[in-house]
């Protein structure tokens, strides 16, 4: 009975060891490559065009099948800005990209692992625009006041208008003086008439 128990224990231990070694050998065969980093990084905001987009895997990709590794960069309006040609340096895959549209860009990539298994994914980055280009685009609007200043007639007309409005209006003064003169003439005529009437009464 004791011998049977010992044998069963030995058999179980050997089976477990064999299973562990088998799993250890299978695990590396099924471990596929993965994305390690991107440039630009996911969600990054750029103020200058990088001119290229790249991804880096944890192992060099399989490059035996042409066209199997892909990096596609799409502008905000939906058109493709990447060249389509992929260069591989070690574990890094790179494509040229003419990024000149401000806004969020989408990068879709696909690579083949060293074991032939394809992996894929996507990320985004935002191009905020080149500040120098923005200032140059605003230059015509800044020069507009200077262009308006070249018209000579505007300032002269504006300068002459206040001078004309400052001319004194003496109409009221003339009316007042005339009224006073009429009153004085009427009063004088009245006094003269009374004196003449009084003088004619004494003579009679």
Give an overview of the whole structure.
The protein is an alpha+beta fold and 204 residues long. 46% of the residues lie in helices and 23% in strands. The protein contains four helices and eight strands, in the order αββββββββααα. The protein has helices spanning 2-30, 131-148, 153-165, 171-203, and strands at residues 35-39, 45-46, 52-57, 70-74, 87-89, 92-96, 103-112, 118-127. Strand 5 and strand 6 (92-96) form a beta hairpin. It is rod-shaped. The model is unreliable at 22-30, 134-139, 141-149 and 154-167 (pLDDT under 50).
Ordered list of secondary-structure elements with their pairings:
Layout: H1 2-30, E1 35-39, E2 45-46, E3 52-57, E4 70-74, E5 87-89, E6 92-96, E7 103-112, E8 118-127, H2 131-148, H3 153-165, H4 171-203
Strand order within the widest beta sheet: 1-3-6-5
Strand content: 15-25%
**Helix content estimate:** 40-55%
Low-confidence regions: 22-30, 134-139, 141-149, 154-167
H and E order:
HEEEEEEEEHHH
- pLDDT averaged residue by residue: 74
Annotation field: number of helices = 4
Based on CA atoms alone, the radius of gyration comes out at 51 Å
What is the SS-derived class? alpha+beta
Keywords summarizing the entry:
204 residues; alpha+beta; four-stranded antiparallel beta sheet; four-stranded mixed beta sheet; 8 strands; rod-shaped
What's the gist of this structure?
46% of the residues lie in helices and 23% in strands. It is an alpha+beta fold. Strands 1-3-6-5 form a four-stranded antiparallel beta sheet, with no helix packed on it.
